[in-house]
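queue> holo job accepted (adenosine-3'-5'-diphosphate)
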Amino acid sequence: MAAENSQNSNVPKYLRKVELTQENKQLIATLPCDTFWQPLTIHQYNGFWHTTKQLQGILNSQKHFIARDSDIIIVTLPKSGTTWLKALAYAILNRKIHYPNPNLHKNQCHPHPLVTANPHDLVPFLDINLYIHKNIPDLCSFPSPRLFASHMPYISLPESVKQSTCKIVYLCRNPKDMFTSLWHFIRKLLPQAQEPRSVEESFERFCEGRSACGPFWDHILGYHKQSLERPNKVMFLTYEELKSEPVRVLKDLAEFIGHGFTEEEESGNVINDIMKLCSFENLSNLEVNKTGKLLTGEENNIYFRRGDIGDGENFLTFDMIEKLNAITQEKLGLHGVNF
Ligand code: A3P
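queue> job finished
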């Protein structure tokens, strides 16, 4: 036991095994499983692949999370720009108490929370954070409207999220850049001595849907369908449109979550101030994001790499690009999802 503990202490906190509840253990034992990147096992639940930790978080939140009508939930596939959207939504919601441009409000006695904390510590995930270790986490400290995040596919969301009038903001990204970002992220996440799975093998698995929260295309379609059927409930965004039309998207986003900008704010440059505060350049150069760690133990800097569009075209081979384009066209083309 002592050897087991000391072994465990050499493993970064975020890669340590989670203690499953008896009920979850029994269910998970019945599911198809595979390895994602050693030492992470993935399980297929509701048609999607999840690490053991995330699955415990999904199952616990399905049982215990009670959504409020005023909640806002950001949903993404990993590496689709979650950190950015968390920062933007947080800045929009809190702009009256934390002005996004400190130079204009010099009497603000504290720095903006996004200057001293990583967006992931300000906007926690239900599934890979709050509900992993506790069935009923303490959510009292979250003022309304509560802002949470999740990587869950639509089918697995807690029933109260689907039934209430809470808002879901879904963000996705083109699969070439997302896969490239994910491969680099996992490499940084693994202990130094451990080689990540080769790009080729990881790519084949990604195409088969055996990736974090995959299949990529099904995850997107689940939310896209909801955004068409219930446009007041689910907002569907892409990383690419956020890059190319930030002002339009920010205005729509603020409106959608019930905190639209006033004319005075628009003419006072508030939208630009929020964009600047949450920009890749600003966030990635903050001391907290260069040297700090998340409450969950990961280094903050692994959430910032290049922050642009098109890196997949440099990283993947011609054949890989062709294959991914063809699958994406086949699965998403007819539904009008374009990146
Ligand atoms: P790259 O690896 O392509 O650079 P997530 O936040 O979902 O984990 O996604 C991480 C990706 O978003 C990384 O992409 C990261 O660099 C990029 N990113 C992080 N913060 C960003 C920001 N403020 N603006 C634009 N992209 C950002």
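queue> Residues 175-189 form the longest helix (15 residues).
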